[in-house]
Amino acid sequence: MHPALSAGVPPDLRSTRTGPAMTYDDILKSTAEAVEALQAAADLPTLEEARIRTLGRNGLLPQIMKSLKDATPEERPRLGQASNQFKEAVQAAWSARKEALEAAALDKVAPPADVTLPGHGVRPGSLHPITQILERVQQVFRAIGFTVASGPDIETVEHNFDALNTPADHPSRDPQDTFYLADGRLLRTHTSPVQIRHMKTHKPPVRIIAPGRAYRRDTPDATHSANFHQLEGLFVAEKVSMADLKGDLTYFARQVLGPKSKTRFRPHFFPFTEPSVEVDFSCHVCGGSGCRVCKNSGWIEIAGAGMVDPNVFKAVDYDPEAVTGYAFGMGLERIAMILLEIQDIRHLYENDARFLAQFA
Ligand code: 2NL
């Protein structure tokens, strides 16, 4: 089949019969046409079709080689020269066009990453707000001679209630308010049992703080959580008085809220202290004139405290005639919320990095 007749016929319909022998001029003409077709290919599939038509098994090149084989010895050198020209020109045109089309295709895909751009960086972590407050409070009490004590979260009724002079019918002992285990033990409702354990195993004088988790059956809301963090303090020695309590907590207020802080002690009731007080600090935001943080009162309630009830001393085998002591307790969440102006206690447990990063 003469290539001129098969031009444009799809490859699968094209006859493989060999056409008439090609002359020198035929070959030159075919070379020009083939090069032109390759150069004109608009895309890679079209280029591939043109390659098959020229260099492929049923294309022009085998046709030319056949003509060369059938040629007379006189004609053969000229035909050989023309066929070499064909091969070289067509090969060159094909690879040049292929390179150009591939480069154009690359330009159309998304630009490669710019490896010279700066990286995203690594954000350093930070201590949780509760931990920050705990460390600050511990630092203040350590400076005036307190050591840090700890104990188990699961406690006995004896350590959590009985030794603390809490009567059998006290509402805090109700299973509605306290988590009891099947064996009768409970999740401690405060860290006071840490101090009971300490007094049972140490003679006075005793000067400890007991920070840790505490548990109450509260329905969570903006200011309540079923588990929270408490810090209690206990100072037992000869002649410890209410003056020591007031002096030490006022020192604490000045360290945490600033040297101008004032304290206020209002009568209250706790089963384990007598007398008992609620401890207010003057508002660190407005200085006492009233603002949003102190709800216009000028005061913020920070702790509960009092003189250790003689019945507590009896429960731990201390002589209430020989020693006296003060004790206090505060919620770390509450202090964190006041100092860091956190509006909802639940933020402290959700570990949302956007929230925590504010206190880094
Ligand atoms: C509060 C009040 C308080 C105590 C805790 C205590 C411990 C022993 C003996 C006597 Cl071993 N008292 N602890 C005393 C008064 C108040 O906590 O508002 N806590 C968040």
Describe this structure in a few short sentences.
It contains 13 helices and nine strands. It is an alpha+beta fold and 360 residues long.
Structural notes for this entry:
The chain has 360 residues and is α+β, with helices and mostly antiparallel strands. Helix content is 40%, strand content 18%. The protein is built from 13 helices and nine strands. It has helices at residues 3-6, 24-40, 44-55, 60-70, 76-108, 129-142, 157-160, 192-201, 242-257, 310-315, 332-340, 347-350, 353-356, and strands at 147-148, 154-155, 186-187, 206-215, 227-237, 263-270, 273-282, 299-308, 324-331. The chain has a seven-stranded mixed β-sheet with strand order 1-4-5-9-8-7-6, sandwiched between helices. The chain has a two-stranded antiparallel ribbon with strand order 2-3. A hairpin with a 2-residue loop joins strand 6 and strand 7 (273-282). Helix 2 runs antiparallel to helix 3 (44-55), helix 3 (44-55) runs antiparallel to helix 5 (76-108) and helix 4 packs antiparallel against helix 5. It is rod-shaped, with a radius of gyration of 46 Å. 32% of the residues are buried. The protein binds 2-{3-[(4-chloropyridin-2-yl)amino]phenoxy}-N-methylacetamide. 2-{3-[(4-chloropyridin-2-yl)amino]phenoxy}-N-methylacetamide binds next to helix 8, strand 5, strand 8 and strand 9.
